[in-house]
Amino acid sequence: MLLYVTLGSNDISRAQGFYDAVMPVLGYRRQRESDEEIGYAADGDTRCRFWVVMPYNQRAATIGNGSMVALHAESRAAVDAFHAAALAHGGTDEGKPGLRSFHASFYAAYVRDPDGNKLSAVCERPE
């Protein structure tokens, strides 16, 4: 359904340090970069599906109340690694890794990036 997602940043260098540490644990890596944006994708994907950008209108990036991007994780260990990498690279905890009530195998962790954008990593495989 989604072609790609963008999140705003006020400091692309800081965001790059965060996302370069967090995205590889989920199987994504930085594929594109410029002074205004960085793009991440899985190897072999034809395009970046996740972008962090300086706002086009050159105003300050702000977070959305109620907005969150949930990223697919192949395993519960990947969710754990995502959470640990995020906290080690300037992110803040919004919910430690664990099972959630959405269904019996919904294992997720929640963080905010250094700009305040909310992210989640989710594994729905039973283990």
TrEMBL record:
> Could you tell me what this protein is called?
VOC family protein
Q: From what superkingdom does this record's organism come? A: Bacteria
Q: Name one Pfam family in it.
A: Glyoxalase
What are the VOC domain coordinates in residue numbering? 1-124
Q: Which InterPro entries match?
A: Glyas_Bleomycin-R_OHBP_Dase (IPR029068), Glyas_Fos-R_dOase_dom (IPR004360), VOC_core (IPR037523)
Do you know which CDD domains this protein is assigned to?
Answer: VOC_like (cd07262)
Species = Rhizobium lusitanum
